[in-house]
Specification:
By secondary structure, the chain is an alpha/beta fold. About 35% of the residues lie in helices and about 20% in strands.
C-alpha cells in the first residue's frame, strides 16, 4: 500500500480489517466449500479474499479503487479461481453494475462474503435481496448499527424498512463483534458480522420486489398511524377495508408490524395499489 502511495478514502468508506484471525473467522462463518461461487465486495488488498480463496471458492472480488485492485490481484495470484475486477458494484442505488450481474450464477447456491464499505452497505444489501437469484448465504462485516437493523424484530428501535425488506428474502442473525482496533484506519463506530440464509419459502422476484417497495412506502413514516399512512398510499376506503379485514388497529404504527402482518397487509390492499 505504501508502494502504491495509498491513503484510505473516507468517501469510499475504506476501513481495512487487518487482523488475520478475524478475517479467517469471517471466511469460516461464510461456510465456503470448494468450487462454491463467492462474491466479495471491497476486497482492498485481499486480506479476507485469501482465506476465501484458500477454502476453494470460485471467487469474484469487486474493487472500486484502481490503486488497490492490482495489489489484490498480486496477492491472489496463487489462486487461479480468484478473479479481481475493478468496478463500482452499484450501477445505481438499486441496481448492480452490469460487469457484476453478468458474472453472477443463474442457478445453484452461491455466497456473499465481504467487509462491506460502510457507505454502500444498506443500498447494496437491499439490492442483493431483490436479485432474481440471490446468494443462499450472506456473511458480511458491517457497521454494528446496520447489522442490528438487519437482524432486528418488530418493536425494536432498529426495526425499519431495511429490516423488513431484507428479511423478506433472508433469515438473519447477528454474528461476532469486531472492535475498532482491528481496522486501519480505526473507524469511529463499532462493527459486527451478520449471517443470513435464504428463506426456504422465497417468493418469486416480482412478488418480492413489490412487497419490499410496499414495506418501504409504509414504514418511511414509521411514527404515523397505519390508517393515515395507508390512506395516503391506497386511499381512505381501501385502507379501512384492509385494516378491518385483518383486524389491525388503525392507530398502530407501521414500525410495530411483524413480517407476516406486513405480507398480509400487502396482499389485502394489493389490488388497490
Amino acid at each position: 500500500m505504501e508502494r502504491a502511495g495509498f491513503h484510505p478514502s473516507r468517501r469510499l468508506g475504506q476501513n481495512f480489517l487487518l487482523d488475520d484471525n478475524m478475517a479467517r473467522a469471517i471466511a469460516s462463518d461464510a461456510g465456503v466449500t470448494p468450487g462454491r461461487f463467492t462474491l466479495e465486495v471491497g476486497p482492498g488488498c485481499g486480506f479476507l479474499s485469501v482465506h476465501l480463496a484458500h477454502a476453494g471458492a470460485q471467487l469474484l472480488c469487486v474493487e472500486i479503487d484502481g490503486r488497490l485492485a492490482p495489489i489484490a490481484r498480486e496477492f491472489l495470484a496463487p489462486y487461479p479461481r480468484a478473479e479481481v475486477i475493478e468496478a463500482d458494484v452499484l450501477e445505481s442505488k438499486s441496481r448492480l453494475a452490469p460487469a457484476v450481474l453478468e458474472r453472477l450464477p443463474r442457478d445453484g447456491a452461491w455466497t456473499l462474503c465481504a467487509n462491506l464499505p460502510y457507505s454502500i452497505s444498506g443500498p447494496f444489501l437491499a439490492t442483493v435481496a431483490q436479485l432474481d437469484h440471490p446468494p443462499a448465504r450472506v456473511a458480511c462485516l458491517v457497521q454494528k448499527e446496520v447489522a442490528e437493523r438487519l437482524a432486528s424484530e418488530p418493536g425494536d428501535a432498529t426495526w425499519g424498512p431495511l429490516s423488513a425488506a431484507f428479511q423478506e428474502a433472508y433469515e438473519v442473525k447477528l454474528g461476532r463483534f469486531v472492535p475498532p482496533q482491528l481496522f486501519w484506519p480505526r473507524p469511529k463506530v463499532d462493527s459486527a458480522v451478520f449471517l443470513a440464509d435464504l428463506r426456504p419459502d422465497l417468493a418469486l422476484p416480482e412478488e418480492r420486489a413489490r412487497r419490499m417497495q410496499f414495506y418501504r412506502d409504509l414504514m418511511q413514516r414509521r411514527r404515523k398511524s397505519l390508517r393515515r399512512v395507508l390512506s395516503d398510499l391506497v386511499g381512505g376506503a381501501s385502507a379501512a377495508r384492509g385494516l378491518e379485514a385483518l383486524d389491525l388497529d388503525p392507530l398502530r404504527r407501521a414500525e410495530t408490524l411483524s413480517l407476516p402482518e406486513l405480507r398480509a397487509l400487502e396482499r389485502e390492499v394489493r389490488v388497490d395499489v
